[in-house]
Amino acid sequence: MEDNRYWSDCWNAFRKGDEEKFRLLHDGFFHLLHDYALRLLQDHDLAYDAIQDLFMKLWIRRSSLPEVQFVKAYLLRSLRTTILNKLRSLKLYELNISLQSSVPDIEFSPEEIKIKEESELLNARNLTKMINQLPPVHKHIIYLRFYEGLSYREISEVVDMNYQSLINTIHRILNRVKAALKNHPEFLLLFLFLPHLA
Questions:
Q1: Closest to 15 in 3D by CA, of 61, 62, 55, 71
Q2: Which of 20, 23, 124, 187 could form a disulfide with 110 if both were Cys (CB 3.0 to 4.6 A apart)?
Q3: pTM here?
Q4: What is the mean pLDDT of residues 7-31?
């Protein structure tokens, strides 16, 4: 919570024209935003350009920006919007960038699945294949929660989904994963790290 307060204070100072706080926001969130943009665009140059476009627009519109409680979620959502607009304007559909339901797709690799031993690599590959078959919005939620550590409230803002709908969606995702792995009970141990949805 203190982290949120710190960034919220930086945000409010930036809205009033504080260039140092603007640089702090840029530098503090750049790597997170770059990883996110890279996931969606799968191109370093386009990812970098999208982030620069975002921060340029933020600086230009600073005085009209709202107060925000979760700066990280606000920046991720704004970047997502910037990317979707960039994809539309550049007509990158022709470059086989998947946009189902207006959500850029995210692909996971077996190396990203946290495994304890090399012998579980085959199971990691099976899990990766199953996760990559989920709808893009589901993969988006998995990425934001388990790779970027966003809270459910923050994720609901990023993906523009009602909080209760998000919780229901996460339950469906977990049930689908568990059902797919019911014949591999040893691999279900990997899901012990998933937080309770209370």
A1: 62
A2: 124
A3: 0.69
A4: 95
Task: List, in order, residues 6 or more apart from 114 with CB less than 8 Å away.
Answer: 190, 193
Task: Tell me: do 128 and 188 sit in the same domain.
Answer: yes
Distance CA 148, CA 76 (A): 11
User: Cβ distance 160 to 77 under 8 Å?
Assistant: yes
Tell me the two tokens of residue 144. 């934001």
- Distance in angstroms (rounded) separating the CA atoms of residues 57 and 54: 5
**Are 107 and 187 contained in the same domain?**
yes
Q: Which two tokens stand for residue 143?
A: 């990425």
What tokens does 48 get? 């970098």
The pLDDT tens digits of the residues spanning 106-124 come to 666 655 555 444 445 555 6
Together in a domain, 76 and 137: no
Least confident segment among 37-46, 72-81, 111-120, 123-132:
111-120
Closest among 50, 56, 100 to 76, alpha carbons compared: 50
| Residue 84 near residue 76, CB atoms below 8 Å | no
